[in-house]
Amino acid sequence: MDIIEEFKRYRERMNAEILTRGGLGIKRFFALDDRVYEKGVLDVRTKELMGLVASTVLRCNDCIVYHVIRCVQEGVSDAEFFEALNVALVVGGSITIPHIRRAVETLDQCREKQRKGESLEV
Amino acid sequence: MDIIEEFKRYRERMNAEILTRGGLGIKRFFALDDRVYEKGVLDVRTKELMGLVASTVLRCNDCIVYHVIRCVQEGVSDAEFFEALNVALVVGGSITIPHIRRAVETLDQCREKQRKGESLEV
Amino acid sequence: MDIIEEFKRYRERMNAEILTRGGLGIKRFFALDDRVYEKGVLDVRTKELMGLVASTVLRCNDCIVYHVIRCVQEGVSDAEFFEALNVALVVGGSITIPHIRRAVETLDQCREKQRKGESLEV
Amino acid sequence: MDIIEEFKRYRERMNAEILTRGGLGIKRFFALDDRVYEKGVLDVRTKELMGLVASTVLRCNDCIVYHVIRCVQEGVSDAEFFEALNVALVVGGSITIPHIRRAVETLDQCREKQRKGESLEV
Amino acid sequence: MDIIEEFKRYRERMNAEILTRGGLGIKRFFALDDRVYEKGVLDVRTKELMGLVASTVLRCNDCIVYHVIRCVQEGVSDAEFFEALNVALVVGGSITIPHIRRAVETLDQCREKQRKGESLEV
Amino acid sequence: MDIIEEFKRYRERMNAEILTRGGLGIKRFFALDDRVYEKGVLDVRTKELMGLVASTVLRCNDCIVYHVIRCVQEGVSDAEFFEALNVALVVGGSITIPHIRRAVETLDQCREKQRKGESLEV
What we know:
Six copies of one chain form a homohexamer. Chain A is mostly helical. Helix content of chain A is 75%, strand content 0%. The first copy, chain A, contains six helices and no strands. The first copy, chain A, starts with a helix and ends in a 7-residue tail after the last helix. The relative contact order of chain A is 0.14. The model of chain A has no long low-confidence stretch (mean pLDDT 97). Chains A and F meet through helix 3 and helix 5 of A and helix 3 and helix 5 of F.
């Protein structure tokens, strides 16, 4: 299964629908959600790594896929990924292991796409 | 994928098995779970909307599918759905977004079934 | 302990500080959080009851205190409270019972304040 | 602080109120909650230990206090307690540590009461 | 779908990768996770049942599948399974029902494999 | 209330007891928990900020107090704190607000101790 493409297509289609049909409150939340990862006094990499750790301890696969892709785009190394996932594993316990599997599987697919020169645009 | 049919078939099959093989305590819990959404001083619509919001902040897709179907049966409008989902989104944060996507996808399939005059019985 | 006064003083003091020192993103989130409970196609009462159920299944005592006060202000009856809490109890399980205790204790204190003609402003 | 007495007094007072004023659904839930820990094919000790592990991974201090008291009444040894808490710690991660502290503090107070020949009735 | 085979293949493949590429901290966590279910003053059966209850209240399907298989290997009877799941259902509420369905479906597939004399090795 | 001193005293006393009386598995978990925040390819500051975000979205006040103190020791600025808390707020929703209040209150007490030249040792 191409986790990345499947996630992107579904996310794009459903977000478009939510933003078209949902009210102003929902649109504003989505805008806040985009902006919170932008560069401030903390850089984008650090914020995306925080997003990955938060998604892993909260055990949300879709959020994990999103932040793995974004971290790869920001140049996070494999060693940095595994250290961030280790923090999540210790904080969140063995219950996060299935989600760490998904994070690593997504990372593998991102690296494969990078090797092939394919876009990771999300 | 027909989310609604797949959910109904799986739910029916497994509930039958659980109620046949499980003990009295499990049967009684299932009975309580049915009754809690019945009309009392609060009407069924309000209770099903509460069930939808609770399922969304707790991030349980199967529970979301169930309550979306039940809300549609009770005549909840699209505008009402999006306001309820907005409450869940603000309370539960961006981690609920994948589940809001699933709620909206299920709503779409319910509306499609309504247009075709198909049953939503659950 | 006066749950209501203690909650209000702490909330006011800390929110003032967060809104003064926090960035624009935090301010906007707090604004969204206020607006989501305003009248739309769903009335304020229904939305506050949803907030109460969501807070109970997520087991957040401070959020429960806030929504109990707001529900009382909106004229929610004791019978309606107990039906809403029953939904939360069935969805969230026995783990919510300590929080249902806190909800009922807060409701008692609100009713006491109402009898004495004291303000519930929050 | 006498964790056990404080918990028992508050629990008794609020449960009485909830059972008096709450509807039939709530009463039935409380009855199910009592019965599920009674002897069946699994013995009471094993079920109370399960209740302790579940309360710890869900991070509910009041539930932890309750099940620690009940486990002590059922003759669970300190070594058995620490093995059960170790399972909860590994499953639930470091986020459970503050709750494991509370469990051990409660266990200490139970042992102290046992030494003094005081009742642990709950 | 063969839940058990699919789970085992995915788990084996991804764990191998995580243990090869992850750092020492991750390896040690996985070792602790294995050891915590070994015989101590509590027997393996009791610990695996605790793991099942914890996984169910935390609503992690992969963890549920793992502990169902392990419980079957340890000779847990159907009646014991349903009592353990009943504890999880009461503690965790109706939100656990979809996961109890998955537990029972996995149990069925384990029993089927046992009837056919197939390995449950995990 | 002196949040920091109270937390430190309780933590020290209970950890000592847990490590004395708990088995090898618990000791090893505590060691892993210490080491995971040590400098690796990610620096200590980044890891402590991750710990703070994870603790906030998981809504654990004691864990928040610990990581706020550690972040202050590592020289995290107020602006960086508020950006990290903003990530947690957006990911985890309004249900995290009471915990963000606690984080900011703890930060204030840390700054006060720094002004007085008092130790933050934890």
